[in-house]
């Protein structure tokens, strides 16, 4: 009797360990390519957030929420959050999500984009790309904002997976995103770029064709002067 009890406890322990292992196999990779913007009052800026799952077998269901924004600013998330019904071994369950991110491995040659995905460069494997799902964030700048002040908009992405054992939803990953928007007047964007380290070399690179023409004209003038001096020297030698 005691042996059967030990065996039963052992089986229960193994089941718990497997449940924990499955629960931990819910992953979420993210990328935020642009964090700061300069924008005119009344304009709208768009930003992309990338979500991917390279290694974990469970599909991650991502819900984005606006956690902080200045009063009067508009923020839209596309695709919007919606209720999606999934079937589990214990019945149907409803999940509130913006996107679902299933297991999708890297592409070795950055070709063959899947429908609903965009390819982003992998910084670990040279030449490879990561298929990622995209969430578009639109930020509406009010008209009555302070010029030159930096405003922050914060979003939280929560990744959830469905447990294969019991069919319930558990939180697996949380990501925080911050966007900084600086209202400017028309024509001030270039002033911001110069303050950020605009150099003489940048000016030369941007006007390379003009400088090439000027250098060619200068070389032609120097060659003509040299030839004229050599001709005068030859004449003087003949006269002697």
Task: Report what the structure shows.
By secondary structure, this protein is an alpha+beta fold. The chain is built from four helices and twelve strands. The protein has two domains: 29-186, Immunoglobulin-like; 199-239. Strands 1, 3, 5, 9 and 10 form a five-stranded antiparallel β-sheet that branches. The protein has a five-stranded mixed β-sheet with strand order 2-12-11-4-8, with no helix packed on it.
Annotation keywords:
2 domains; alpha+beta; 5-stranded mixed sheet; 240 residues; 12 strands; 5-stranded antiparallel sheet; Immunoglobulin-like
Rg calculated over all Cα atoms: 31 Å
Number of helices: 4
Second CATH tier, the architecture of the largest domain: Sandwich
Q: Quick one: how many beta strands?
A: 12
> Which sheet architecture does the biggest sheet show?
5 strands, antiparallel
Provide the domain count.
2
Overall pLDDT level: 77
Instruction: Label the structural class.
Output: alpha+beta
Give the low-pLDDT segments: 4-23, 189-211, 233-240
As a percent range, the share of helical residues equals 25-40%
Helix-strand pattern: HEEEEEEEEEEEEHHH
CATH topology of the largest domain: Immunoglobulin-like
Q: What's the CATH class label of the largest domain?
A: Mainly Beta
Q: What does the overall shape look like?
A: flat
- Strand portion, in percent? 35-45%
Output the CATH homologous superfamily of the largest domain.
Answer: Immunoglobulins
How far is it from the N-terminal to the C-terminal residue, by CA?
132 Å
């Amino acid at each position: 009797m005691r042996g059967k009890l030990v065996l039963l406890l052992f089986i229960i322990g193994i089941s718990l360990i497997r449940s924990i292992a499955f629960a931990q196999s819910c992953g979420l990779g993210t990328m935020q390519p642009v964090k700061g913007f300069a924008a005119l009052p009344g304009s709208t800026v768009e930003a992309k957030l990338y979500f991917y799952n390279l290694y974990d077998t469970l599909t991650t269901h991502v819900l984005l929420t606006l956690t902080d924004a200045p009063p009067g600013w508009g923020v839209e998330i596309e695709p919007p959050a919606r209720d999606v019904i999934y079937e589990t071994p214990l019945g149907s369950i409803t999940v509130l999500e913006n996107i679902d991110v299933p297991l999708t491995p890297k592409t070795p040659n950055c070709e063959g984009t899947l429908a609903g995905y965009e390819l982003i460069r992998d910084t670990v494997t040279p030449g490879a790309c990561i298929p990622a799902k995209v969430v578009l964030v639109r930020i509406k700048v009010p008209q009555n904002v302070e010029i030159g002040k930096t405003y922050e908009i914060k979003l939280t992405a929560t990744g959830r997976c469905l447990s294969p054992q019991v069919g319930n939803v558990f939180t697996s990953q949380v990501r925080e995103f911050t966007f900084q928007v600086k209202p400017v007047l028309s024509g001030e964007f270039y002033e911001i770029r110069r303050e950020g380290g605009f150099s003489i070399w940048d000016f030369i690179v941007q006007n390379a064709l003009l400088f090439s023409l000027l250098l060619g004209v200068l070389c032609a003038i120097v060659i003509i002067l040299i030839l004229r001096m050599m001709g005068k020297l030859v004449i003087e030698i003949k006269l002697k």
